[in-house]
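Preliminary data (for renewal application), beta-D-fucopyranose complex.
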Amino acid sequence: MSFPADFVWGTATSSYQVEGAAQEDGRGPAIWDEFSRTPGKVKNGDTGDVACDHYHRFPQDIALMRDLGVNGYRFSVAWPRVLPQGVGRINEAGLDFYTRLVDALREAGIEPYLTLYHWDLPQALQERGGWENPDSVAWFSEYSHVVSSALGADIGHWITLNEPFVISMVANLMGVHAPGKRDPVAAYTIAHHLMLAHGASVPIVRANAPGAEVGITLDQTYSDPLTSSDADRRAARRFAAFHNDWFLEPVFRGVYPADLLARLEPQGVLARVDLSQIERARVPIDFLGVNYYTRSLVRDNPGEPLLGLDFGRNEHGQHTALDWEVYPDGLLHTLLYLRNAYYPAKIYITENGCAYDDPQPSNGVVEDPERARYYQLHLPAAAEAIRLGVPVAGYFAWSMFDNFEWAEGYDKRFGIYHVDFATQQRTPKRSALAYRDRIAAERTR
Ligand code: FCB
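Predicted structure:
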């Protein structure tokens, strides 16, 4: 397996999951502060108050990244750190944190990849309806302008949104993430506003960061039918449309996928969506960010109203601690599909990784053979896609650190570095050492 010489080897995190310092230096509350304090929403009542304390420890954390040999770090900006009320008054101390972070990255020879929105919406905006409010497009534009005018000269890679599928559907249809709604009309309204917000943000960032690459990160699931029946095949197609195409089609073609549109419209869930606006989501982007973790095995179920499907499980497969099937071929299929359907100029794999119940550190390392194997299986899938002509330009392991895994709290560990949350001690896992060796080997090829 080999990768191009200029391939970006990175790791990823997000603000709420690692920063901590939730009440410091003027940061306003985020919807995750509120949600994690609501009993029953997050496992063990965990919150992001301290997380990995990356806000204070970023110099040491960047030193670890340098040791690893990565040349890219994907992080996100906490909107309420920069604009505590979501709009209006700018908190200079918040911007200053990101300036210091970026300076330290540059000094270490690591290129920053900045995500504007990785789920920590200011609570003040949630109180005004959050992403359900059509004004959210203007709010996000203002925020994009504030961050890109402050950091535009220093950042060459910008991601508008992380995973609009999760922001809309997991948080507002399934109720699993903040703000925890179960309302299909709200979820589809939000998905629409997110796409418009992306379309509005890209030219703002471009104007403030000339020469920078701007894109969006979409999480992709690879859908297979559970059986070879026609009904299951059609269900798998519906799930792919629901999870992937609902966001890909606006970004690349300025439309919603016709097949799913025809199913959803009569159900009334698009009642608050002005379909004619969706062409605004299609603005030129420099890359597509792809997050890939697993595949979905889909089964037809006429009893389930929205999509008429549910899921099966591959009993012969291997599964992570979140019961996600380890399915590296799905990454290859996904990358080939994206290339053939949309011809993106560039793709960055902005997240890929797995949770396992790791043992405690011993002799300065955590033995995580299953995670090491997961990477060992997925990297060749990326290499094979490149060999077949997919313009994959970089790979970011999720995650640099064990961190606040949303509704799972600190229970599910995705890090290639172990974090002891009582002492904040970081310990490399075997997977980190293997990643380091892989990067070094690729560089000397
Ligand atoms: C993705 C999120 C990321 C992390 C991983 C496991 O959906 O973008 O924050 O939680 O899943």
